[in-house]
Structure formats: structure tokens, C-alpha cells
């Protein structure tokens, strides 16, 4: 079954067109990403900014054209942290309806489940103890699991756009502001550590979404999805990136290879990954190019199978 799975995040919108079966994901026909910054000013104003809604409208129009080109059997978009927080979320629903895109706003716990399903869809070791980290614009999800089985997870309001707007007033950024960010991150990360199941052996941290893929691409010097998927970010590399990013202007970060729509918030993402290694006493993080959109595709297949099974029983 060909599906269109969309992820409307607080910073980026993504659209995946793929074949899915009961066994998992098959052929990828299209995988697009657009910087929308839906969460612009949301932490202060509690509403979607008109400019953010205009960018969302243009992005949905582009994705609708891609969907029309590929003619999937099922379409589903899931919106995350920004949509949960916005008082005028109905305006986002109206845009999605205008472009023929079914939209759901998912709770943080459901987002963690969807993220985990997508992130581990390419993992082959059923016994591997995993921590999946998904740094979004508004929230960041931390999910423990063993192979394909999710054990526990939680969503925290420490996304890179949210914390940038809350703590960062200038770029380059002062030591004081970085220390304030680290205190906020460490508080959340220590709570995450307390959620770790009793007797759980952590083997690998998987990081999904734009922060780890942008850092991997900048480290490589170019974007190659095949090389970025599984790329190792060590503690030493992340500490180096934190130092470079803290001392740089937004323009300098773009010259380093960080995408324009992410450069002003990448410091928060790099700090999150670096502190996670410290708190969990790990030496490396593996980058995954899979995330919410892959989980949405699998969720579409799960629902279709459940519906077919119910119809058969009836």
C-alpha cells in the first residue's frame, strides 16, 4: 500500500511517500523536508504567528502537489508540540483541510510511540537496549526500548526553538546563557534517567530529526542520507561543535554547513545531545534519518490492517 505520511513539527514539516506492508516500510518514492518554523513566538504568545501560518500554507500546497503526483492510497499528517500548545490550532486544521490533508494532533506520549516506531524501523537486533532522542522545535522525546519493543518514554518541553526563544538573546552566545540552558536540560535529562526501567541495559542512543542529521552533514561536509543514517557523533565531536556554535553568528553557522532554517537553534540541539551523553555515561550517539514520518507511515499500515481484520471478523 502506497501512503503519504506527514510530520508537521514546530520547526520542520516533512512528507514521506512510501510503500508499507505488514512487514514494514518498502520503497521510498519521495521524502521532502521544509523549514516552516510553525512554533515562531509560540512560547510567549500561545498562538500561531500569522507569518508561521503563511509558511505552513505554502508548504502544504507544495506537499499536496507531491501527493497528487504519487497518488497514495492513504494520507495522514500528524502535528506535534506547537499544535498542542497553540490556542488557534483550528487555523492549522483549516489549512490542512484546504489542501486535502487529513490532520491529527497527537499527545506527547503518542508522539513518543510514533517516533520510536519510526526510529527503530531499520534496527535488526531485537535485544538491543535503546534510548531514542527526538529533538523537535517545541518538545523533545526520550524513549527507552528493547529492539522493536517500546518500554517507556516521555515528552519534555525542551525543544530547540522553545529553549532558544526562552534563553538565547544573542549569537555568539554568552557562557551565562549556555549555563542556563544546561541547567534546564540536565533537570529534564535526570528525570529521563529516573524513567529507565529497572535492570535495563542501555546499549545505544539513537538520535533522530534535524539536529543530529544537520551536525552529521556538517561534519561530513555534505548531505548524503545513506552515510548520515548510522553516523556516529562522539562526545568529543559534540563538545567541539558546542564550542564552535556558541562562538558563532547565525551567518557563520550557515557557512559551517548548518541549514539556514536551523542555524539559529542548532546550539540548543547540540547541547541536548552532548548533555545526554554525559548524563547517560555513553561515548557516542548514532544518527537516524528516520523519525515521526516513518512512524506515521507504519501507523497508517497498522490502522488499515486493524480495520481489515475487524471487517473480516464481522
Question: Distance between termini?
Answer: 23 Å
Compute the CA-based radius of gyration. 19 Å
Physical arrangement of strands within the biggest beta sheet: 8-7-6-9-11-10
Strand content: 15-25%
**Which whole number gives the mean pLDDT?**
93
Number of strands: 11
* DSSP summary: helix tally: 13
Protein name: Ppx/GppA phosphatase N-terminal domain-containing protein
InterPro entries: ATPase_NBD, GppA/Ppx_hydrolase, Ppx_GppA_N
GO molecular function: pyrophosphatase activity
Pfam families: Ppx-GppA
Keywords summarizing the entry:
five-stranded mixed β-sheet, alpha/beta, 2 domains, 314 residues, Nucleotidyltransferase, domain 5, ATPase_NBD, six-stranded mixed β-sheet, 47% helix, Ppx_GppA_N, GppA/Ppx_hydrolase
Plain-language structure description:
Pfam families: Ppx-GppA. This is Ppx/GppA phosphatase N-terminal domain-containing protein. This protein is of the alpha/beta class. It is built from 13 helices and eleven strands. The strands form two sheets. Strands 8-7-6-9-11-10 form a six-stranded mixed beta sheet, with helices on both faces. Strands 3-2-1-4-5 form a five-stranded mixed beta sheet, sandwiched between helices. A hairpin with a 3-residue loop joins strand 1 (2-8) and strand 2. Helix 2 (50-70) runs parallel beside helix 4 (90-98), helix 5 (108-119) crosses helix 13 (292-313) and helix 10 (235-246) runs antiparallel to helix 12 (266-280). 44% of the residues are buried. The mean pLDDT is 93.
